[in-house]
Amino acid sequence: MLTREGSKGIIDAADVPTDWLERLTRPRPLLARFEQPLPLVMGILNITPDSFSDGGRHDAPDAAIAAARSMHAAGAAMIDVGAESTRPGAPSLPVADELARLAPLWSGLKGLPISIDTRKSPVMAVALDEGAMIVNDVSALGHDPAAMALVAQRGCPVILMHHQGTPETMQIAPHYDNALLDVFDWLEGRIAAAIAGGIAPDAIIADPGIGFGKGLAHNLALLKGLTLLHGLGVPILLGASRKSLISKLTGEVPVEQRLPGSLALALAGANAGVQIIRVHDVPETVQALTLWRACHPALA
After folding, report:
1. What is the pLDDT of residue 7?
2. Please, is 43 exposed, middle or buried when counting C-beta atoms within 10 Å of its C-beta (0-12, 13-18, 19+)?
3. Catalytic residue positions, numbered
């Protein structure tokens, strides 16, 4: 845990973990599986009628499968498939309904690198049986008591995302003493819990959860301090694509006009060294990152 003093979050050097350098420099072998340059691009595929950005666009199975294959062809290292909206205010979806939305897709998604975006262990189990390779849980394995054991037993990689509250309540007056350090400490605790639950350290990815129980100031603190999260010792995923902070900073821009802001946030994440960037706009992000790599002195 990183200690802090007052609202500025001053870190006491005496309280920095003794393995800090090892955490920062240890290999992230999970990333080598994808054989692509970093940061990897994760494409978002919501097969929901009510997601904040693309709800209803991919709820027809043929459209969803075509979108997944198009994103992969455009350079997405993985496709994150979700059948339950976790936008602010969204109600929980029954397991049976979530499974029913996914069922028509599995045959068409065969052979693609799929991540399953769900909080529920029965959905995780079916998705892994159907070929999904990663579990992406916005509750960091805290929503379903059976999820931790399932992921440990299956031995699959898992994304642990920070959140405050539930989708129904998370944007009702979120509060932090210091957003960056509070999120670091929370993720550190969830990583420790996952390891204690039998999940291999090399199978864990951390996500600061931009927009999940956070106001604009909290999101900006996290974006400005992303490099600190490498001290968790695991790969970092950034998911800020099309989120409302873009509108809040640029004057109420509708979701469909947030591509420039999304690309700016993706490049900010790349400059901070995040290893995975989760986006709606795969071809545009892949192109931007290709140019970023070509111009980056350390990568030339």
Report:
1. 43
2. buried
3. 243, 278
